[in-house]
Design a protein that fits this description.
The complex is a heterodimer. By secondary structure, chain A is of the alpha+beta class. Helices cover 31% and strands 31% of the residues of chain A. Chain A folds into two domains: 1-32; 34-161, OB fold (Dihydrolipoamide Acetyltransferase, E2P) (Beta Barrel). A five-stranded mixed beta barrel of chain A has the order 2-4-5-7-6. The N and C termini of chain A lie far apart (52 Å). The longest helix of chain B has 32 residues, at 201-232. The chains are: A alpha+beta, B alpha+beta. Chain B: Residues 315-640 form the Cytochrome c-type biogenesis protein CcmF C-terminal domain. Chain B: It is a multi-pass membrane protein.
Chain lengths: 169, 660
C-alpha cells in the first residue's frame, strides 16, 4: 500500500466512525429528549397524554395529600395555572409546600401528571433554576424568593426517584 | 493577621507567575540560559507562596475564625476537625485556591525534576504554566477572594452544607483536581513544542508520565465521586449524566486517548500533530469543566453560590486559552512533519481506532452537555438530555471500543496479522459466549442485552489474560520459563493487562446493577419484616441521638438470610439545625461484590417510617474496575522506561532534535 492509500484508509475509517456517531446522536435526539414545561405552558400547548416531559413550578400550599403505600398527590402551580400531580415513593428531603419542584413523567387520560421522578434540585431558596427562569418570564416572580440567596447560600440537592434511571442529581 | 498574610502570599504568587510568564520566554528567544533558568526558581517560589496561602486558609478554618467571610459561611465551631479541614475546598473560593495550589504543585514538580529536559523546552513549559496560573490567580483575587474579612464578626458560623460533611469531600475534589490540573502539564508541553516548532519521541517520553499521573488521579477521582453520590444521596444511583459529571468524563475520555496516542508517538514517532492536538483538547475540556461547574450555568450539588461576574471571567479565560492554543496549533502544526509509516492493520492502526472512538464518544458527551444550554440561549426553550440519550448514542460507540480492546495489544507494530490475533483470541471469545449462554439460561427474562453485555465484559477480561498468556508463553512453555518471562515482562505490559481488564470488570458491574437491581419501598413499623432478594430485614426500632452539630434518628434493622442472622444495619437521617436541612445516611451491607442498601424517608403520623431498600448485585465491581485501571496506570508509571529521572539507555538520543 502506498502512503496515500494508507492515509485514505485512515481518513475513510474516521469518516465512517463520525457518520455512525452522527446517526446515533440524531436518532437518540429524536427519542430521548425531555422538554421542560410549566402548568401554564401545558394548558396552552395541549400536551398529549403519555408524552414525557418535566413539569416545574411551585407546590401549591395545602395541596399535599398522602395516601396509602407512599402514594402522594399535590398540585404544581405557576401563578397562571395549576396541574395535579400523582407520585408514589419517598419525596426528597427538600420537598416543601410553597417551594419549587421539578417532576418528570407524563399526563394520564384524566389530565393528572403521573410523576415517576420528583427532583428537589435547588439551593437554599428552594427555587430550582429552571422554575425561577420560567416564573420570571411569566411575570410571577416575587423578589422575596431570591432574598435569602443574598447571604451566599449554597445549594443542597436531593432526588427522589421512582424508576431506576434518568434523574439528574 | 493570618488572613492578610494568606492574601498577600497569593498576590506575591501572582507577581512571581507574571515574571515566570515572560522572562523565560525572552530568555529562550535570546538563548540566555540565566534568563531561562529564572523559570525554575519562580516556579518553586510560586509553590511555596501558594502553599502558604492555602495553609493560611486551612488554619483559619481550623481555628474557626468567623471574622473571615469564607469561614463564617462554610464552617461551624462544633464541626468535627476533619470537616473543618475538608470544608476549606467545600466552597467556591476555597476550591479555586486548591485548584491553583495543585497547578503550582505540578509546576514545581516540573521545575524540580525537569533537570534533564532541554533548557529552552523547560523554560517554555514553565512559562505556559505561568500563563494559566496568572489567569487563575487574577480570577481568585478579583472575583473570589477567600480571605475577605467581615466588619462585625459573627459569633457562630453558618456551617458547611450537610451533604458535603462526609469523608468523600476529603478525597474526591483533591483527586479530581489532581487529574484536571495535571493535564495542564501535557498542555504546556504541547504549546511549548508548537512555540519551538519541533517535537520528537523524547517529547512523548516526557509527556506520557505526566499524562499518566493525571489520568490515574482523574480515574480514581471520578470513581470516588460516583461512589460518594451512591451512598450519600440516598437512592442508590451512581451515575446521572449530570453536566458536572460529564465535565469530568470528557477530560477522562480525551486523556485516555492522549495516553494511547502518546504511545504511538513514543514508539513509532507517528501521530505527532494529533497527539499535540489531543493534549490541547484534553486540558481545554478540563477548563470547560471548571467553567461549567463554577459559572452557575447549571444547577447541581457542585455549583456553589455563584455570581455572574465569575462566569464571565472564567468564560474569558476559557476563550483565551482554548482559542489561543488552537490558533497556535492551526498556524504551527503544518511545520511538524509526519513520520512513521504503518499499515491500517497494526498496533498503530488499533491505537488510531481507539483514539477515534474515544474522541467521538467524547464529542457525543460534549454535544449532550452543551445542546440543552445552546437551545436555552438560542431557541429559548428548556429541555434536558438524560440517560436515554447517552444509552442510545454513547453506549454503542463504547461497545465498539470494548470489542476492539482485546485486539489492540496483541497486534504487532507496523504490520499486524488480524487473522492470527483472532485465532489467539478464540479462547477468550469462547469464554464470552459460554458466559452469555450461562447467564441467559440462569436468569430467564430481563433484558436480552444484559447477557450479551456481560459476555462482552468477560471477553475483555479474558482478552487481557490471553495477551498475558501469549507474552509469557503460558501452557506452551514449561512453567518455570513462563514465570521467568512474567517477571521479565515490562511493567507497562502488566499495566495494560490490568487497565483493560478493569474495563471489563466495570462493565459487568454496571450491567448487573442496572439489570437485576431489586428495589423495595414501603412504610415500616417496628418489628415489620421486609423481604428483599432473599434477605429478611426486620426493623427493630427507632432511636434518637445527638451528634456534634446535628440530631440524628437511627433505624435499626436486623438482617438475616434463611433464618441465619447476618448483621445489623443502621441507616439514619440527620437534621442539621444551623442550616435547617437534613441528610440521609444510607446503611450498606457488603456481601461479596453485592450490597444491601437502606435509606430512610420521613416518619408518618402513625409512627411508621418510609424506607427504601435495595439489593444491588455485583455493584462494587463498578468501582473495582476503575481501581484496577488506576492500578494498571501505577504499574505502567513505575516502568523503567517512564521513570522520571531514571538514567536513559542512550543519553544522546534524549536531546530534542528538530523534526526531519
Amino acid at each position: 500500500m502506498t502512503r496515500k492509500q494508507r492515509r485514505m484508509t485512515i481518513i475513510g475509517g474516521s469518516l465512517a466512525v463520525l457518520a455512525l456517531a452522527a446517526a446515533l446522536v440524531l436518532n437518540a435526539l429524536r427519542d430521548s429528549i425531555v422538554f421542560f414545561s410549566t402548568p401554564t405552558m401545558v394548558a396552552e400547548n395541549h400536551v398529549q397524554p403519555g408524552k414525557r416531559f418535566r413539569l416545574g413550578g411551585l407546590v401549591q400550599p395545602g395541596s399535599l395529600q398522602r395516601g396509602d403505600n407512599l402514594a402522594v398527590t399535590f398540585e404544581v402551580a405557576d401563578g397562571g395555572a395549576k396541574l395535579p400531580v400523582a407520585y408514589k415513593g419517598i419525596l426528597p428531603d427538600l420537598f416543601r409546600e410553597g417551594q419549587g419542584v421539578v417532576a418528570e413523567g407524563a399526563l394520564d387520560a384524566n389530565g393528572v401528571f403521573k410523576a415517576d421522578t420528583v427532583l428537589a434540585k435547588h439551593d437554599e431558596t428552594y427555587m430550582p433554576k429552571d422554575v425561577a427562569d420560567a416564573l420570571k418570564k411569566q411575570g410571577h416572580w416575587k423578589d422575596d424568593y431570591g432574598a435569602q440567596a443574598a447571604g451566599g447560600a449554597k445549594p443542597a440537592a436531593t432526588t427522589a426517584q421512582g424508576n431506576s434511571q434518568g434523574a439528574v442529581r | 493577621m493570618i488572613a492578610e498574610a494568606g492574601h498577600y502570599a497569593l498576590v506575591l504568587a501572582l507577581a512571581l507567575a507574571l515574571i515566570q510568564s515572560f522572562v523565560p520566554m525572552i530568555g529562550a528567544r535570546l538563548r540566555d540560559s540565566a534568563l531561562m533558568n529564572v523559570a525554575r526558581s519562580t516556579a518553586l517560589a510560586q509553590l511555596v507562596f501558594v502553599g502558604a496561602s492555602f495553609i493560611a486558609l486551612v488554619t483559619l478554618h481550623v481555628n474557626s475564625d468567623f471574622s473571615v467571610a469564607n469561614v463564617y459561611e462554610n464552617s461551624h465551631s462544633m464541626k468535627p476537625l476533619i470537616y473543618k479541614i475538608t470544608g476549606v475546598w467545600g466552597n467556591h473560593e476555597g476550591s479555586m485556591l486548591l485548584w491553583v495550589s495543585i497547578l503550582a504543585l505540578f509546576g514545581g514538580l516540573v521545575a524540580a525534576f525537569g533537570n534533564n529536559l532541554p533548557l529552552s523546552l523547560r523554560a517554555h513549559v514553565l512559562a505556559v504554566q505561568a500563563w494559566i496560573a496568572s489567569a487563575f490567580y487574577l480570577f481568585i483575587l478579583i472575583t473570589s477572594n477567600p480571605f475577605l474579612r467581615i466588619v462585625n464578626p459573627p459569633i457562630e458560623g453558618r456551617d458547611l452544607n450537610p451533604v458535603l460533611q462526609d469523608i468523600g469531600l476529603a478525597v474526591h475534589p483533591p483527586m479530581l483536581y489532581l487529574g484536571y490540573v495535571g493535564f495542564s502539564i501535557s498542555f504546556s508541553f504541547a504549546i511549548a513544542a508548537l512555540i519551538e516548532g519541533r517535537i520528537d519521541a523524547a517529547w512523548a517520553r516526557w509527556v506520557r508520565p505526566w499524562t499518566l499521573v493525571a489520568w490515574i488521579f482523574l480515574t480514581l477521582g471520578i470513581a470516588m465521586g460516583s461512589y460518594w453520590a451512591y451512598y450519600e444521596l440516598g437512592w442508590g444511583g451512581w451515575w446521572f449524566w449530570d453536566p458536572v459529571e460529564n465535565a469530568s468524563l470528557m477530560p477522562w475520555l480525551a486523556g485516555t486517548a492522549l495516553l494511547h496516542s502518546a504511545l504511538v508517538m513514543e514508539k513509532r514517532n507517528a501521530l505527532k500533530v494529533w497527539t499535540i492536538l489531543l493534549s490541547i483538547l484534553t486540558f481545554s475540556l478540563s477548563l470547560l469543566g471548571t467553567f461549567l461547574v463554577r459559572s452557575g450555568v447549571i444547577t447541581s450539588v457542585h455549583a456553589f453560590a455563584n455570581d455572574p461576574t465569575r462566569g464571565v471571567f472564567i468564560l474569558l479565560i476559557l476563550c483565551l486559552f482554548i482559542g489561543g492554543s488552537l490558533s497556535l496549533f492551526a498556524g504551527r502544526a503544518t511545520s511538524l512533519k509526519q513520520g512513521g509509516l504503518f499499515a491500517p492493520i497494526s498496533r498503530e492502526g488499533a491505537l488510531v481506532l481507539n483514539n477515534l472512538l474515544l474522541t467521538v464518544a467524547c464529542a457525543v458527551v460534549l454535544f449532550g452537555t452543551l445542546y440543552p444550554l445552546a437551545m436555552e440561549v438560542l431557541a429559548d426553550f428548556k429541555m434536558s438530555v438524560g440517560a436515554p440519550f447517552y444509552n442510545l448514542s454513547f453506549v454503542p460507540l463504547f461497545v465498539l471500543l470494548l470489542l476492539a480492546v482485546p485486539f489492540g495489544p496483541m497486534l504487532a507494530w507496523k504490520r499486524g496479522d488480524l487473522l492470527g490475533v483472532t485465532q489467539r483470541l478464540l479462547a477468550a471469545g469462547v469464554a464470552g459466549l459460554v458466559v452469555i449462554a450461562i447467564v441467559w439460561a440462569w436468569t430467564r427474562g430481563g433484558s436480552a442485552l444484559a447477557p450479551l453485555a456481560i459476555g462482552l465484559g468477560v471477553f475483555v477480561i479474558a482478552g487481557a489474560a490471553t495477551d498475558l498468556a501469549e507474552r509469557t508463553g503460558l501452557f506452551r512453555l514449561p512453567f518455570a520459563t513462563t514465570l521467568r518471562r512474567a517477571r521479565g515482562l515490562p511493567r507497562s505490559a502488566w499495566g495494560t493487562v490490568f487497565a483493560h481488564a478493569g474495563l471489563g470488570v466495570a462493565l459487568i458491574g454496571i450491567v448487573c446493577e442496572t439489570t437485576w437491581n431489586t428495589e423495595y419501598i414501603a412504610t415500616m413499623k417496628p418489628n415489620d419484616v421486609a423481604q428483599v432478594a432473599g434477605y429478611d430485614l426486620k426493623l427493630d426500632g427507632l432511636l434518637e441521638r445527638q451528634g456534634p452539630n446535628y440530631r440524628e434518628m437511627i433505624a435499626q434493622f436486623n438482617v438475616s438470610r434463611d433464618g441465619e442472622a447476618l448483621s445489623v444495619m443502621t441507616p439514619s437521617k440527620r437534621s442539621f439545625t444551623t442550616r435547617g436541612s437534613s441528610t440521609t445516611e444510607a446503611a450498606l451491607l457488603t456481601r461479596g461484590a453485592s450490597q444491601l442498601y437502606i435509606s430512610l424517608g420521613d416518619v408518618t403520623a402513625e409512627g411508621a417510617i418510609a424506607v427504601r431498600i435495595y439489593h444491588k448485585p455485583l455493584v462494587l465491581m463498578i468501582w473495582w474496575g476503575p481501581v484496577l485501571m488506576a492500578f494498571g496506570g501505577v504499574l505502567s508509571l513505575s516502568d523503567r522506561r517512564l521513570r522520571v529521572g531514571a538514567p536513559k539507555p542512550a543519553r544522546a538520543k534524549q536531546r530534542l532534535q528538530p523534526a526531519e
